[in-house]
Amino acid sequence: MILIVDFGSQYNQLIARRVREARVYCRIAPPAISISEVRDMAPEGIILSGGPASIYEKNSPRADPAILELGIPVLGICYGMQFMIDALGGVVKAAGRREYGFADLRVARPEGIFAGIRGETACWMSHGDSVTETPAGFEVTATTANTPVAAIADNDRRLHGLQFHPEVAHTVRGKQMLKNFLFEICGCKRSWTMKSFAREAVAHIRDTVGDRKVILGLSGGVDSSVTALLIHQAIGRNLTCIFVDNGLLRKNEAAQMRERFGRHLDVNIRYVRAGGRFLGELKGVTDPERKRKIIGRVFMEVFEAEAKKITDATFLAQGTLYPDVIESVSAFGGPTAVIKSHHNVGGLPKKMKLKLIEPLRELFKDEVRRLGKQIGLPESLIWRQPFPGPGLAIRILGEVTAKRLAILREADAVLLEEIRQSGYYRKLWQSFAVLVPVKSVGVMGDQRTYEHIIAVRAVNSVDAMTADWARLPHKLLARISNRIINEVRGVNRVVYDISSKPPSTIEWE
Ligand code: XMP
């Protein structure tokens, strides 16, 4: 296991990723972690991350310097290296020249962190401070034109430092450097696999839960589906999944969820039909934010009422992922890992005195997909495009009515069928229809029509923070348009959304 001490760098998730990719388990902790906690974790190596602060500032984040004296190999990256230097009596100063971007790294010898790496190689720098004096015992192992101390090592104490960022792709041999640290210096084994993770997770859930009961809100998304199946494999019928049909789902979605989970996977599932209630509360509401708030509140009420019926439940399970956990870990030694709760059931555990279990807390999204595959979740559930909690309601501009929902649902079903058939479904981040309840004139069979507009939205994205509209083939767009206009009553015009995010968003509301 590798411990990553988080000094607040934007690249920390990437360090964790790289370690995991090398099939070594890792955990991230704030600098305030105590030496006894580190000892209990017994890591094979410690990585001190980068961070935005300057070590010579008064309130800069610091770890207990004793972390450098445990006999455990340490790799300091950027600020992490500067902390190490400062703690051991060296000097760090504001650099005469700041260095951001590519730099040519000149490696002294192909050894240690640089085993297998000779001569010059591109690295990625992002620092305003530099080491001007190294503490006794260290030698400089690499330099760049602007940074005379670009890498250091004290082989006796097994302490290493890199001024640049080996975790970012721009550092061409960065992966090799991290691997050298993990395998050559720390002696880690490549033992982190999905199979071992699944086995340990199931055993851990069994140990934690015993014969008590667990509730889980099943949404149909990958995270809650994998969570459900994993817990089901651990405790069987003692898990109850609550599936709220808010009436804002896509065509056949609710039925498919019941069928897949209830019948094929034999998961204990409670289906709550609440479409009428949601629609009633949304009547006359046109403001997007009000819609979202109403849907969030009603969901909570419906979920809570159902959850209360399971009187002997002790746990609430959630599909929180690692990025959510990391985002909420304070870099400056604040409270450890305040969890960013699921947007829908956030307040529930406290209110109902339930304990949280989050078996995916340590995984990234693609790892969750691999885990799903490992434990036998059907492909159709693993490879689902994201679907927002408020569902179709935020894809109908203006008031949500039963009639409008029916139109959108049909149009969306046609669109998805075509996208699936064309092989684009997995390639796109999201693809869906939006109902623009504005009427325009058309002509069908010599008759004048006056009907609604469907907008087609298809985007590529890696994390939903930014997105670009997908350049779908014209032939495919033509077929989608043709079929929607022919098959969906109430629509006589289809348009394609060619806006990127930012400045637009993915959803229309
Ligand atoms: P926007 O529209 O902000 O969406 O570009 C970014 C991503 O988030 C999804 N989304 C939601 N997901 N509850 C969710 O679970 C919501 O209220 C919600 N709103 C937007 C959206 O589909 C896209 O993937």
Features:
alpha/beta, GMP Synthetase, Chain A, domain 3, 24% strand, Rossmann fold, 509 residues, 18 strands, 15 helices, 9-stranded mixed β-sheet, 5-stranded parallel β-sheet, binds xanthosine-5'-monophosphate, single chain
Q: How would you explain this protein's 3D organization?
A:
It is a single chain. This protein has helices spanning 12-21, 35-41, 79-87, 174-185, 194-209, 222-235, 253-264, 275-282, 288-309, 322-328, 348-351, 365-374, 379-382, 402-421, 474-487, and strands spanning 2-5, 26-29, 45-48, 74-77, 91-107, 120-133, 139-143, 151-154, 159-162, 213-217, 239-245, 269-273, 313-317, 355-357, 430-444, 447-460, 468-469, 491-496. With 509 residues, it is α/β, with parallel strands linked by helices. The protein folds into three domains: 2-185, Class I glutamine amidotransferase (GATase) domain (Rossmann fold); 194-382, Rossmann fold (3-Layer(aba) Sandwich), CATH 3.40.50.620; 395-496, 2-Layer Sandwich (GMP Synthetase, Chain A, domain 3). The strands form three sheets. The chain has a nine-stranded mixed β-sheet, sandwiched between helices. A five-stranded parallel β-sheet has the order 12-11-10-13-14, sandwiched between helices. Helix 5 (194-209) crosses helix 12. The two termini are 44 Å apart. Residues 328-345 have low confidence and may be disordered. The structure holds xanthosine-5'-monophosphate. Xanthosine-5'-monophosphate is lined by residues 292, 343, 386, 388-390, 430, 464, 501, 505-507.
